[in-house]
Amino acid sequence: MVPLRPTERIDDLLTYDLKIIQSDEVFSFSLDAVLLGRFCSVPPKGRMIDLCTGNGVVPLLLATRTRAEIWGVEIQDRLADMAVRNAMINGLEDRLHMIQGDLKTIHQTLGHGQFDALTVNPPYLPVPNGEQNVNEHYAAARHEIHCTLEDVIAASAKLVKAGGKVAMVHRATRLIDICYLMRKYRLEPKRIRYVHARAGEEAMMVLIEGMKDGKPEIRTLPPLIVYDENQEYCKELKEIYYGGRASLEFSAEEAE
To answer: Residue 25 — φ and ψ, nearest 5°?
Structure first.
């Protein structure tokens, strides 16, 4: 039996009968993590790593798509501990390696260029000015307290090998910053997909994948519209949540 702390609960992740430990005291996974887990290219085997892993939801989702060994890195002790136990309750502790650590220095432990692919769902917002009466776990998940966007991309470039893939989900308004920083650190943007809440609305999120030392060329994929005309999740999202192989998934060969 995997122990639960006070306030923790076990939720159904829906897809592939996965379970996940969550708590209202810390930031729970959301749609962006699910989309990232399906958008990114995955090697059939080898080594993957997820930065800002939180309670380990993205590695859990990746484990349904590849036989690769997957590392998750989370700076907050509380969340890293949850990630370890989430691997255990799903019987994946032999393949999912959850580490409490700082992404800015984790290459010193895990090595340079050791990973075939990397995913990251980083904090989206700059640190606000003034005192913040906010739960520390929520603040760290939302704001660039422990790492900036440049920190994330610089760390990613150190961890993946030449030809390795780096996939990120972020606010669409940060796209130019992301592309600039990716090129600065030799991660050539190769695939991009905008996510819109509803048809006719501007993009709220962007999914982007770069390749270490890749050649300049980017594919813009069809937009993902989250809600249909009945204000329900679109067919593609329902397939993702319930384990279908939706068009968000691409093989490593297709992403070349």
So the answer is: -80, -15
- In angstroms, the CA 176 to CA 248 distance is 22
For residue 165 the two structure tokens come to: 């893939």
Question: Digits of tens for pLDDT over the chain (256 positions)?
Answer: 899 999 999 998 877 789 999 998 886 778 899 999 999 999 999 999 999 999 999 999 999 999 999 999 999 999 999 999 999 999 999 999 999 999 999 999 999 999 999 999 998 766 565 445 465 544 454 545 668 999 999 999 999 999 999 999 999 999 999 999 999 999 999 999 999 999 999 999 999 999 999 999 999 999 999 999 999 999 888 888 776 443 333 333 333 3
pTM score, whole prediction:
0.88
Instruction: In whole angstroms, give the CA distance from residue 102 to residue 104.
Output: 5
Q: What one-letter code names the amino acid at 211?
A: M
Judge whether 170 and 206 are in contact, CB under 8 Å: yes
What is the residue whose two structure tokens read 């997957």? 70
185 contacts 156 by C-beta, under 8 angstroms: yes
